Amino acid sequence: MSHTAANKQQLQDAFELFNQVSEQLTGSYAVLQQQVVGLNQELAAARTERLQLLADIRSLQLEASRSRRLSSMGEMTARLAHQVRTPLSAALLYASQLKQSNLPLEQHDCFVDRLLVGLRHLDHMVNDMLVFARGGQAGEEKIDVLELLEQVRQSLQPRLQAGRADWQVKAAQHAVAVLGQGEVLASVLGNLASNALDACGDAARLDWQVDGQDDDVVISLQDNGPGIADDLRERIFEPFFTTRTNGTGLGLAVVRAVIVAHRGEIELDTDFREGARFIVRLPVCREQRHLPSERLHKRQKAAIATSRYV
After folding, report:
1. In a domain, 157, yes or no
2. What count of Cα atoms within 13 Å lies in the side-chain half-sphere of residue 206?
3. Distance between CA 245 and CA 247 in Å, rounded?
4. 210 near 145, Cβ under 8 Å?
5. Is residue 268 part of a domain?
6. Which H or E element spans position 142?
7. By three-state DSSP, how is residue 171 classified?
8. What is the C-alpha to C-alpha distance for residues 99 and 231, in angstroms, rounded to an integer?
């Protein structure tokens, strides 16, 4: 074979090989196109499924949020009912006394005054609990802690007298103040005192101590009751946990919720074994200036609050 014929044969073989490769590439391209179409369809299906999952998740989140709101509303209603029970019972008691036909005028006026105080307390309590239900702290005021404890003592005075209870307040300072809602704080401190009276029975001793520690006001209450069993100490602040047959289990849960809402904390002193001792910490309200009349008024209130009541 001549050199020219050999070159022509090589060129023909190269074209045939090129054609074969081109056909293979065309076939591969067609296969790839089909795979791309299939993958696009799978991606579209996956995207649709993902959007459906996101819609389902949003629906579940909305349902869970609704359930939480309903649960919170139910719990808040139960808490409010528990908070209202004590002052409502006192108001009903005073109202029943007014039915006596031979009631002296002075006693009648006294019962009316106490009834009005109780009803105003209920009104403020409902308003304050609604504020907390909305998660806000509108209407914060400066609260003198010793005056607050005196308000609690006055609200419990009938029980203190009936049970021959001893109430004592000691304070390291004459004027200690916090910021918050006075009626709500008085109510929860009253809950602590009421629990102590229930636990101690007759001749209860309630000792309050008020101290300032750095940026906190520390309010402690200790009693001479049987104390709280070790296996219950971790659960006493849980909502709906109670050891009483007719209890709601919301008393201490409400106390902690309100204290936390006031940017404070409450704990049970586990080292105290001669009864129960609760410690409340609240941020101190600092004011540099006080009018002379305000200082005199606070000293007078402090002198009253640190007296002993039997």
Report:
1. yes
2. 35
3. 6
4. yes
5. yes
6. strand 141-144
7. strand
8. 48
- Domain of 288, CATH number, reads 3.30.565.10
The span from the CA of 208 to the CA of 152, in Å, is 12
Strands 166-171 and 177-180, by their bridges, are unpaired
Cα separation of 157 and 153, whole Å? 6
Domain carrying residue 190: 140-305
What would the DSSP string read from start to end of 184-229?
HHHHHHHHHHHHHHHHH-TT-EEEEEEEEETTEEEEEEEESS----
| Residue tagged 């060129």 (tokens) | 11
Structure tokens that stand for 287 in this block: 């004011």
Question: Quick one: pLDDT at residue 148?
Answer: 94
Count of alpha carbons within 13 Å of 130, Cβ hemisphere only?
6
Query: Which whole-number Å values give the CA distances from 56 to 46, 50, 66, in the listed order?
Result: 15, 10, 15
pLDDT score recorded for residue 124: 61
Complete edge-to-edge strand list for the sheet that includes strand 216-223: 166-171, 205-213, 216-223, 277-283, 265-268
Three-state secondary-structure class, residue 178: strand
Residue 268 DSSP class: E
Whether residue 82 contacts residue 250, with contact meaning beta carbons closer than 8 Å, is answered with yes
Q: Residue 123: phi, psi to the nearest 5?
A: -60, -45
Joined together, the tokens standing for residue 164 give: 């021959």
pLDDT, residue 206, reads: 95
What's the number of domains the chain is made of? Answer: 1
Q: Does 291 map to a domain?
A: yes
- Whether residue 303 has pLDDT greater than 70: no
Over range 4-32, report the average pLDDT.
Answer: 80
Q: How many Å apart are CA 106 and CA 138, to the nearest integer?
A: 39
pLDDT, one tens digit per residue, over 215-228 is: 899 999 999 998 88
Does residue 176 lie within any of the structural domains?
Answer: yes
